[in-house]
Amino acid sequence: MKQLQATSQPCTQDDPQVLKIAEVKVVTEERELSPLQPIRRFDVFAETKRLEALAHGEPDDVAKGYGIRIAKIVASRRFGGSASKKTRHEQDDAPDGGASKGSRFGGEGGSKFRTLDGEIQSDETFDREIIDRMGPEFYEVVFQPAIREALAAGRKYEQIRDTIRKNWKPVRR
User: Fold this and answer.
1) 70 and 49 in contact (C-beta within 8 Å)?
2) In a domain, 7, yes or no
3) Residue 80 sits in which domain range?
4) Mapping DSSP to helix (H, G, I), strand (E, B) and coil, where does residue 137 land?
5) From residue 119, how far is each of 76, 77, 124 by CA, in Å?
């Protein structure tokens, strides 16, 4: 619940140039939000890629599908995948253009989404594997705005991936 709290400074009548100053602050009585699960680099990367797609004019559902798919591709390279053994989908996302048909964000042949290992990487996948894992309220109130603000300030993923999530710890229940 939000309440308004007003404070003021008294003015002296000796000095006509001094105006009475009033300050109004919004005071929140909300509890500090915590994620349901630990926040991973994977979550930060997926959100960063989602925001990148939005910045290129993609609709939110396509941006979410792109964010989760690219995060999984990058994670698979780090954890056992090999850059020399790129799948067809990884080649489609190559900066040189590869053999992609359609946008780099959406699917092929007019589809909104692409598949990875036989599973469609959609907005529902993003919601389930990112948002539901940390909690929708934490995502909307804390996580998403913090990532957006850091990127708007010109910071790169590599600069924020650890520091931004440092204090976001789940509460033991």
Assistant:
1) yes
2) no
3) 41-160
4) helix
5) 15, 18, 12
Distances (CA, A) of 23 to 11, 20, 67: 14, 10, 42
Q: How far is CA 145 from the centre of its chain?
A: 7
Predicted TM-score (pTM) of this structure? 0.70
- The Cα 66–Cα 105 span in angstroms is 5
3-state secondary structure of 4: strand
Distance CA 53, CA 97 (A): 16
Say if 19 falls within a structural domain.
no
**Within a domain: 141:** yes
Residue at 64 is within a domain: yes
How many domains, in total, are found in the chain? Answer: 1
Assess contact for 66 and 33: CB atoms under 8 A: no
Give the pair of three-digit tokens for residue 25: 């602050």
- At 7 the pLDDT is 47
**DSSP bridge pairs for 5:** 25
Dist CA 85 CA 91 (whole Å): 10
- Does residue 35 contact residue 138 with C-beta atoms inside 8 Å? yes
For the chain, 173 residues long, the average pLDDT of each consecutive 10-residue run is 47 47 43 92 98 96 96 86 45 43 70 89 97 97 97 96 94 77
